Every structure is written in C-alpha cells, then in structure tokens.
Amino acid sequence: MSSDIIKYSDLKKINDSYEPALSDAIKSVVDSGWYIHGKQNEEFEKEFADYCGVDHCIGVGNGLDALSLIIRAYKEMGVLKDGDKIMVPVNTFIASVLAITANDLIPVFIEPNEETQNIDPSILESEYTSDVRAILVVHLYGRICDMTPILKFADRHSLKIIEDCAQAHGALYRPFAGKPEAEAATCGVRSELDSFFMGDEYEGASFEYTKRAGAIGDAAGFSFYPGKNLGALGDGGAVTTNDTELAEVIRMLSNYGSSKKYVHEYQGLNSRLDEIQAAVLRVKLRRIEEDNQRRTEIAEMYYNGIDNPLLKLSSRAVDGENVYHIFPVFCNERDRLQKYLLDNGLQTLIHYPIPPHKQKAYSEFESFSFPVAERLADTELSIPLNVSMSDDEVIRVIFLLNGFV
Ligand SMILES: *Cc1c(COP(=O)(O)O)cnc(C)c1O
C-alpha cells in the first residue's frame, strides 16, 4: 500500500479534472470585457434553477449572504420582523445562525436526532411558541432532513421554511419512493402537495414524488465555497425559490436595492455572483450528477467496509438520496483516533468542534445545554470523501479505521 499522505481534500486535483474547460471558461470571461451581472450569471441562474426544479435562482456573493438575503427580503415584504424567532438546528455551521441574528431575529436552537445528525422533528412542537415565524433547516453533511413531519409542522403554524443547502447540492427528497400512490395521497403533507399527489396527471401512473434540495421549502440558500459539492474558485452563493415576489426583492437587495441602475427601492447591499465564478460553476454543474454518484460509491464502500466497535456511522438515509458532502464517523475517543490516523498519513477534519451556543460570539446562549449536539461535537470526525479519491485510497482509509484499537 502507498505510504503517501491522504489529504482530507485536494482542490487542485479536483479542479484539474475539469480542465481544460475551466481555464477556457475563465479566458472567455476575461476576453468578453464584462465581469459582473452578465451572460454567465444569467445562464447559470437558469441552469441551476432548472437543475433544482424551481422557478427562480439568484446568484449572490456567498452562502451566508444567500441565507441572510432571504430573511432580509421577508422583512422587507412584512413576512418577518425584528424580534421574530426562527428555529434552527444547534449543530450547524455558524453561518446558519448568523443569517438570523444579523437580521435582528432570534434563533431557537433545536437538537439534532443523534442517528441522522439532522434537526429532530419530534421536538419542534414542544419548542414552538407563537413568535416563531420560520424554520431554517440544514441538510447537514449532504443528507436531506426528515422533511415530511417538518412540512406538516410548518403548515400547522404557517411557518416559512428556509433550507440551508450549502452541503446538499443535488440531494433528493423521495418520501414515498417505491410506495403506492394511494399511501402517498393520504399522507397529507401540505395542501399544495396534496393536490400534487392527487392531481389527474398522476392518476394511473406509478407514483414517485421527488424534489431536490432547494425546492422543498419556501426558499433556499446555497454556497459555492470551493470545497462544497458544487464549488467555485472563490466565493459564490445562490438563492432558489418558487416565490416570484421574494425572488424580485432578493434580486434588488443584492444589487444595492435597485430595480434599475441608479433607482433604489431598498437600502440594499452588494452581494453578486461574478461572471468568472458563474462561468466556472456552469462547467462544474454539467458534471454534478456524475460527481455526486462517485461520492455515493465511496460512501457505499465506507458503509460496507468500516467495521470497528469503537466507531459509529450515521444511519443510512431512507427517504432521500444523500450527496455525502461530509462522511462523519463518531468515536468516544475522537482526538486519539484523529491522532492515530494522522500518524498513519490520513488527514481528517471535525465538523464542528464547537456548537454555536458555545461560541464566544454567542455568549448570550452560554448557559444553554444541548447534550446531543455537544456529544456530536465531542465525538465527530470527518474522513476524506471527494471525487479525486481513488478506490485504493478509500480502501486504505477503511483499513486504517478498522485497525484502530
Ligand atoms: C458553507 C456553509 C455555509 C456558508 O457558506 P459560505 O459560502 O461560506 O458563506 C452556510 N451553511 C452551511 C451549513 C455551510 O456548510
């Protein structure tokens, strides 16, 4: 076996695999003489909306801005106001929470389910108060949240559902995969979906209800940070939604609040997807299904190969297709495991070592206790999973993990 170091991720190797298309795309933008809000962004927005299965996509500066702009736009529209509460999982990347507090709203932290690491729908009702106006779900590690009860909960209380899709480009929600239509029809997710289930066009057809991440809730934020499943060569982000008014407000807010040049409806900001990043993303979007398929293959190898009583894996997704942005393993002796792996040439990361309520930035939540999230933060270790890994490397990772005593 090779004694080379296995990096957690090798962005140069990954991006090399798209060449020469990436360099050609960049060169064509350089040659065009047009660098902001041009043809590349316009085409990418169409292609990404199409891929996600939504009416609107707005390219923005990064993933945090995407989430923050959704909340800001809802405030401008009178849907949300200062002091309203938004439910959010407590084991997320800080950006999900920053989007809420930056807009003078209040996060209501929700524990994850320990087996799925996604927001636990069974505690939403007991945490609900009448000043909760929205729920921000995070499809963590590339796995779709348990959306059926969340859709029902949101429907019951007229809450907006905002999806944080920064880790879940292309993930599928398929709650009734393989089940008969009649069963799906009686599930009663949302009135809108009920009519979808029972619509004439599906009568007699073998039933399968599928939506992609970014098309399940009312609006979604994506990040194209270089390490994400769809990664730019710099910062980038997008909002997807079927809500035409919301899309229009976000489009204005992200461009100085202007409806047309030098006419300003809102006190907006500058958060745009530049032409070079849009051109790069268009190249990479063409291969995303193949890339996610390779990620799934590697994950399958891990699930089939990792066998060590000291390690616990995430439960397998049953009602959706995970795109495996991150492959977590859980170990009570995480720090010793990480050192052992590094000593044997394997780089790993931790997602995330400190939950938001334990961060200095959020000292007002210091006294809160979230034992599940805290336990996950103490035991999680992310092993390499990316499209530049060879089968040999995957096998070496499995061998090392099984050799940990
Ligand atoms: C990466 C990430 C973000 C933020 O995206 P940026 O583009 O880095 O601002 C938000 N939420 C989650 C869950 C992320 O992983």
Binned strand content: 5-15%
Small molecules (ligands, ions, cofactors) in the structure: pyridoxal-5'-phosphate
- The CATH topology of the largest domain is given as Aspartate Aminotransferase, domain 2
- H and E string: HHHEHEHEHEHEEHHEEEHEEHHEEEHHEH
**Helical run tally:** 15
Structural class: alpha/beta
What is the general shape?
Answer: globular
Q: Order of strands across the widest beta sheet?
A: 1-9-8-5-4-2-3
Mean pLDDT: 93
Give the proportion of residues in helices.
25-40%
Q: How large is the radius of gyration?
A: 21 Å
β-strand number = 15
CATH architecture of the largest domain: 3-Layer(aba) Sandwich
Highest-level CATH class of the largest domain: Alpha Beta
Major β-sheet, in short? 7 strands, mixed
CATH superfamily caption of the largest domain? Type I PLP-dependent aspartate aminotransferase-like (Major domain)
Low-confidence stretches at least 5 residues in length (pLDDT < 50)?
186-207
Q: How far is the N terminus from the C terminus? A: 20 Å
Compute the number of structural domains: 2
Topology overview:
Elements (H helix, E strand, L loop, with lengths): L10 H6 L4 H12 L6 H14 L3 E5 L2 H14 L8 E5 L4 H8 L4 E5 L13 H4 L4 E7 L8 H10 L3 E5 L7 E2 L7 H5 L5 H8 L12 E2 L6 E5 L13 E5 L2 H10 L4 E3 L2 E2 L10 H11 L2 H18 L6 E2 L6 E2 L5 E4 L3 H10 L27 H9 E4 L7 H12 L3
Parallel strand pairs: 2-3, 2-4, 4-5, 5-8
Antiparallel strand pairs: 1-9, 6-7, 6-13, 8-9, 10-11, 12-14, 14-15
Helix pairs in contact: 2-11, 3-11, 4-5, 4-10, 12-15
The structure holds pyridoxal-5'-phosphate (PLP).
